[in-house]
Write a structure and sequence with these properties.
916 residues, alpha/beta, Rossmann fold, 4 domains, seven-stranded parallel sheet, five-stranded parallel sheet, 61% helix, 7% strand, Superfamily II DNA/RNA helicase, SNF2 family, Helicase_C-like, SNF2_N
């Protein structure tokens, strides 16, 4: 063997050693690569074809199709491997084991051979040169050649096996089953790239998660839910602004009165507002004002207590003069919200909920296996859940996308600022109801004067208001549930709180439950208003039992046939009762129920006979008590006789509040209508002119009697030169200049209102009086409310003092005092009620040294009694200690008033005589 052959063997030996190290089997690997590609493509095709097109579009926005294929990893270990792959992988594994065995057996010999061959290459010489070679080297070279010659076949044998045995399909498959069992994970090796095992997330899931996050954020903004969030944000901003204003305006002097310590009070002289105190720390206060830590803590506590109290009651008011900026933006949002298609809103909510659930499901899958490669290391059951969940995720996303594509953009209304202001002026109650609904105040309404268990039971009540078109305020929602829950109730809410709406909500619910025979009894003056409200807010059919006999019979027959609401007035109740042997009502509503407070009257008996067998009864009145305390019990007796007797006989009993709370509910405007603008009272005094004084004194001289008091009360209006008339004209002109409207109330139509009609400017088309039919009254009010040239509406107080809504006016003139406090309250409530968005000014016109002064004393006394006994739905404790029998009736009061005025005249005459 010469050095040339040694070089060749050395080269082959390098190839053998590299092969034994790398175990490179190119032919098998090419075949396996081809087979793997086929398997991956098949699995990928199955997977990609199972994905909805909409989901593919999401993925294609982030990855090209070839990139998707590249990052895809099939879950091979949970499915049957192909026969070809099994054979190829087994052949590779078998060859690798044999190669390893060959290496183990021959690596030492090969290393020695390599050294020998290198020695031969370095020392082998030609015959001539070998003459000069060292004998020892010659001898060593000879032995090396013998060793190389003897072992050179080892190299050729390995190369032969590399080409013809190891890089070929195995001839024997002995041990294949064991290989599949023990080395299954190895079969994944061909699919693994350098990033696979270190990847902590699934690329496709990452894309879907990003999509869900973006869509959730987008839909949260561009949906009804987004409108709600914007409304809540603006409302909170307005509350913060309002609180800051109240804190800045809160008098430091008021805070001083709360603090007894003189040193602390003295420190307050350096502050201009409570807000300045709150901004400081205790240490700041102590250092600046030489107070102890205890004193500084007390001062800061008092300031924060005030802030917290103000904060709990803060309620931004959307008065017309402040409608700009955020307030105007809020109205536009609320208008969009109220007109938002309910179907789309429901679907938006479902889609949003699905998106959030999908994010949770994706997180759940990642906790099982964070990527597709690692699904090969989980159990078969876990993998089955993983795979089916993945399919479900894509299916739900596709459904959401399909629904989402149907959504239209309703985020802006088509109204300009002036139009939205006009809409708010017309229907501000709905806007405030929506604010309560969105901000959560509706859910949080809790009448403080009712026992907790009653509140809880009522709040749990569910009403089916399908077909009901109004948005209930929080207190109205509670009132409606209360009426339905207790079935026989007296609703004594103050005027202007929407008792009609609450009654109609219950009527709608009962109708939806199959109890669709409803009766409404009201005064004739508000019958038309009831008809309009029924038509406006419900889908219930309304039949009016009034008119000629044929009309009444026809409407009654239709009502009996179809159900709905039978609407009638008090004077028709007897006729209605006699028209049928028996009439069954599911629900009876009696409006202005104080008109049947006396059980002995024919009117009360007719109503009671008509509704006595009714399962659901509702008496409504803004005045539960007028002249006698026991009148409220008379009304309760119509609903629950045994309860009325129990209450009347046990006024001091501890169970009294609880007992009456089951039948009587009363809320006051100031308690529930936080948005109501300011209500101010101005007393405008005047004196009689000579002609009026003579008329007044002459009336007193005529003696007692109803006619005498009538003359005395209208004495200030007999002459055009009247101071009261001048006052009224001034108020009306000022209102006109400020684009405001005025209601002028008087008891006297002919002697006062007709007289005023000749002298006042900007008048409505007619006087609201008892002579004007109810439907015409409403027409006059409608025109007055809309016509900018009509600023003054004359109203006879007994005809227009109750049941009518005239929020277009925000000034109220009371021409003379009335005998009942409720009469004046009812009149004021025509303007100062839910829906009013201007400050309301009430002018009491009083004449000095006249019946006006004496009557005001009586009114104030009666009003105190009313506030004591009836303003709390459970009735204040003081009520229990009162003696209702001591209150004088109206006739006695009138006699007293006349007696006082006669004595006044006699004293005046004595003075004149003494000076005369």
């Amino acid at each position: 063997m010469d050095k040339f052959e040694a070089k060749k063997l050395l080269k082959d030996l390098d190839i053998v050693q590299e092969f034994l190290k790398d175990k490179d089997l190119p032919q098998l690997e090419r075949q396996l690569s081809s087979e793997v590609e086929t398997l991956k493509k098949e699995d990928y095709d199955i997977w990609i074809n199972s994905i909805p097109d909409s989901v593919k579009e999401i993925m294609y926005k982030k990855l090209m199709p070839e990139e998707m294929y590249d990052v895809f990893f099939p879950s091979l270990l949970h499915s049957d491997l192909s026969k070809n792959e099994i054979i190829l992988v087994f052949s590779i594994l078998k060859s690798e084991k044999e190669i390893d065995q060959c290496t183990l057996e021959n690596s030492g010999k090969l290393n020695d051979l390599k050294v020998i061959l290198q020695f031969i290459v370095e020392n082998d010489r030609s015959k001539f040169l070998s003459i000069f070679q060292n004998p020892e080297v010659k001898q060593k070279l000879l032995r090396a050649k013998e060793f190389a010659e003897k072992n050179k076949n080892l190299i050729s044998n390995i190369l032969f096996r590399k080409r013809n045995e190891w890089d070929e399909i195995a001839e024997s498959f002995e041990g294949l089953d064991m290989s599949l069992k023990d080395d299954r994970q190895i079969y994944l090796a061909p699919f693994v790239n350098q990033n696979t095992e270190t990847l902590n997330e699934d690329k496709f899931f990452s894309i879907i998660q990003e999509f869900l996050k973006n869509q959730t954020n987008l839909l949260s903004i561009q949906s009804k839910n987004g409108i709600e969030e914007s409304v809540r944000d603006i409302w909170e901003e307005l509350k913060k602004e309002e609180l800051a204003q109240q804190l800045n305006s809160f008098s430091i002097e008021m805070l001083k009165k709360r603090i007894k310590n003189e040193q602390i009070a003295a420190a307050l002289n350096d502050f201009n507002s409570v807000e300045e105190i709150i901004k400081l720390s205790v240490n700041d206060i102590v250092e600046r004002y030489d107070l102890s830590v205890q004193q500084g803590t007390e001062l800061l506590k008092q300031a924060k207590d005030i802030r917290n109290k103000l904060k709990s009651n803060v309620y931004p008011k959307l008065t017309l003069d402040k409608l700009k900026g955020k307030r105007l933006q809020l109205l536009h949002l609320l208008n969009v919200y109220r007109n938002y298609p309910n179907d789309q809103a429901v679907e938006e909510k479902v889609v949003l909920e699905n998106y959030k659930q999908l994010e949770e499901k994706l997180n759940s899958l990642e906790s099982i296996a964070p990527n597709r490669y690692l699904t090969n290391s989980i159990s078969s059951n876990s993998f089955e859940y993983w795979r089916e969940s993945e399919k479900e995720i894509y299916r739900i996303i596709d459904g959401c996308i399909r629904v989402n594509r149907t959504f239209k953009n309703y985020l802006k209304d088509n109204l300009n600022d002036q139009e939205i202001k006009a809409l708010f002026e017309k229907d501000s109650a709905t806007f405030y109801a929506l604010i309560e609904e969105i901000t959560g105040n509706k859910k949080n309404y809790n009448p403080s004067d009712l026992p907790d268990y009653i509140v809880q039971e009522v709040q749990k009540t569910k009403l089916d208001l399908k077909g009901f078109k109004a948005h209930l305020r929080s207190y109205q929602d509670f009132g409606s549930k209360y009426i339905f829950y207790f079935q026989k109730t007296l609703l004594g809410d103050e005027m202007g709180l929407g008792k009609t709406i609450q009654a109609l909500a219950v009527a709608t619910h009962l109708s939806n439950q199959g109890k669709n025979r409803c009766l409404v009894v009201s005064p004739l003056s508000v019958l038309e208003n009831w008809r309009r409200e029924i038509e406006k807010w419900t889908n219930l059919k309304c039949f009016v039992f009034r008119g000629n006999k044929a009309t009444k019979e026809q409407n009654l027959a239709k009502w009996e046939e179809t159900g709905g609401i039978l609407l009638t007035n008090y004077s028709q109740c007897g006729i209605l009762k006699e028209s049928r042997e028996k009439i069954d009502f599911d629900f009876a509503i009696v409006d202005e129920a104080h008109l049947i407070k006396n059980p002995s009257t024919k009117r009360s008996k007719n109503v009671n006979d008509l509704i006595k067998n009714c399962d659901y009864k509702l008496l409504m009145t803004g005045t539960a008590l007028e002249n006698r305390i026991n009148e409220m019990f008379n009304l309760i007796e119509l609903l629950n006789k045994s309860l009325a007797e129990k209450v009347a006989n046990n006024l001091n009993n501890k169970t009294y509040k609880t007992d009456i709370a089951q039948v009587y509910l009363r809320r006051k405007r100031k308690e529930v209508l936080h948005e109501l603008p300011a209500l101010s009272f101005t007393t405008m005094w005047s004196t009689f002119n000579d002609e009026e004084q003579v008329f007044y004194d002459q009336a007193i001289r005529e003696g007692t009697g109803a006619g005498v008091l009538m003359k005395m009360r209208r004495a200030a209006f007999i002459d055009a030169d009247s101071q009261k008339i001048k006052q009224i004209i001034d108020i009306c002109i000022d209102a006109h200049e400020n684009n405001e409207k005025v209601l002028v109330f008087s008891f006297f139509k002919y002697y006062v209102l007709q007289f005023l009609k000749k002298h006042l400017p900007y008048l409505a088309d007619d006087i609201i009086s008892g002579d004007l039919p109810p439907n015409q009254r409403q027409e006059v009010i409608d025109i007055f409310s809309k016509n900018p040239k009509q600023n003054v509406l004359l109203v006879q107080i007994d005809a227009g003092g109750f049941g009518l809504n005239i929020q277009a006016a925000n000034r109220v003139i009371l021409c003379e005092p009335q005998w009942k406090p409720s009469t004046e309250n009812q009149a004021i409530s025509r303007a100062y009620r839910m829906g009013q968005n201007r400050n309301v000014m009430v002018y009491r016109l009083l004449t000095k040294d006249s019946v006006d002064e004496t009557m005001m004393e009586i009114i104030h006394k009666k009003e105190d009694i009313f506030n004591t006994y009836a303003n709390d739905s459970a009735v204040a404790d003081a009520f229990m200690n009162s003696d209702s029998d001591k209150e004088e009736n109206e006739e006695v009061v009138k006699k007293k008033v006349f007696q006082i005025e006669r004595e006044r005249l006699e004293k005046k005459q004595e003075v004149v005589g003494a000076n005369g």
